[in-house]
Amino acid sequence: MTNSDLAAAFDQLAKLMELHQENPFKIRSYKNVAGLLSKLGTPISEMSSDERRALKGVGEAIADKIVQLESEGKMKTLERYREMTPQGIQQLLQIKGIGPSKVRAIWKELGIESAVELRYACIENRLVDLKGFGSKTQQDVLKKLDFHFAHQNEMLYRRASTLAKTIEEQLSELASVSRIERTGDLRRQMPVVRSLEFIVIADVPLLLGELEQLDAFVDATLVSKSISIRHVLGQQINIYPTTAPEFGREWLRTTGPDRFVAQFGTNAYSSEAALFEEYNKVVVPPHVRDLAVPDLDVTQLVRQDQIQGVLHVHSAYSDGVNSIEELAVHAHQAGYAYLGITDHSQIAVYANGLNEKRLLEQWAEIEELNEQGPCRILKGIECDILNDGDLDYEDELRSKFEFVIASIHTNIKMDEQKATQRLVRAIEHPHTNIVGHPTGRLLLGRSGYPIDMAMILDACAANGVALELNCSPSRMDIDWRWIAPAIERGVKIALNPDAPSREAIDTIGYGVAMAQKGLLTAEHCLNCLSAADFLDFCRK
Ligand SMILES: [Zn+2]
Prior knowledge:
Elements: H1 3-19, H2 24-39, H3 49-53, H4 60-72, H5 76-83, H6 87-94, H7 100-110, H8 115-123, H9 135-150, E1 155-156, H10 157-172, E2 177-183, H11 184-187, E3 192-193, E4 196-202, H12 204-213, E5 217-223, E6 226-231, E7 236-242, H13 247-255, H14 258-261, H15 272-278, E8 309-313, H16 324-333, E9 338-344, H17 356-372, E10 376-384, H18 395-398, E11 403-407, H19 416-428, E12 434-435, H20 453-463, E13 466-470, H21 483-488, E14 493-496, H22 508-517, H23 531-539
Parallel strand pairs: 4-7, 8-9, 9-10, 10-11, 11-12, 12-13, 13-14
Antiparallel strand pairs: 1-3, 2-4, 5-6, 6-7
Helix pairs in contact: 1-2, 1-5, 1-7, 8-9, 13-15, 19-20
The structure holds zinc ion.
């Protein structure tokens, strides 16, 4: 069990207990453990029981529950609450933005037991008179449900990639299959994968027979040239069977996108390389094919080894799990020359934001570490953008940071005009250097506030402000499609991990792939600058 599997179990336990109106202190402790586990970089399976108990909030009872999950794959307490709760209600609890107390009211007062029933009730206006609801809440619930139904089968790239590995192992054991490769969204490394797709060289009747024998898959159906099948974990999978002489052309076609594929004829080729050669084209890696133009020079795209610094990292001073020293050691070992510490600003109380006193402590520690360490540590901040577009802290204190990432974390329900104005004002602020997670989206969670992209980019260009491409697999914000218009205006992109732990610094790797998809070059990537040049940029 990975840390995130364990976190999901404690998160579900907390939600179920809240649904059943249990002891709030216990609920809080399970929520905290879920939060801790999801941020913790070190796999808990590699920690001794003493190390585990040294973690904040992990006492005897919780440590015991973790051991149960590891040894039996389930937790007794959680199973008890699951048995008390209809399946459909458990699913409703997983939809982001509809909390347990609302689910309870819907279940107990209206007798609703599934997401489909709840959607009906909203359309029939039945939530309006429910205590604590009203027409605005009903509208909001309907919006959350629609988002849920629209993205039901989708998954984040990182999860899709992990699951794909399991499926590849299972398929590669079949006698009917002689080659298996990823294709479609998965091969193009889309941030959200709509369906898991594989291409195989296989004997089709034999393959169908073998799939039926496997416990890991259900409901195999062959429609024209593709086999649709469901994994027991619930994921829909498409398998394209083909022959060795046709493999290259079929792999190209199923990888997509159509616009890229259209440059090639329909003759059979055994490999993609042969196809590119026949049509006299440079080989374009799959994840770059979405925007690839005929004269694209792929050697110019930004590479991991060109990234010199890490710019958006949270330490234990605010809501991160590691000390500044631990973060610096990891950044150095990963090959970075500088590390920008950007904890939360003081108004972000929920994230343990830093007041002046604690900032001074942090700066003293950074200065001391900089005297010995090989990785230069920069005094940065993730400064909250207030409701009116101003920044947190007084001017004098704020001017002492070496760089400022300005981000929106609160009052995120805004229309396009409000959101754009708020961001433009923050971009025009003399202390802003980078806009953090510019749209606030959480992939598969919420779509983020609507903004006028052209106005934001123009403001960045006019004020020498860079945009973040947040490399967390669940954000990938800004979207890769924004990169080309940013480059056109001379706006730099910062590939930022927004790391809550040292290991999360490595998510920059996902960001590099995403940046390549958007055709980013090193020249336009902010953290490809040396520390001195980066600081020059920040002094504008
Ligand atoms: Zn943030």
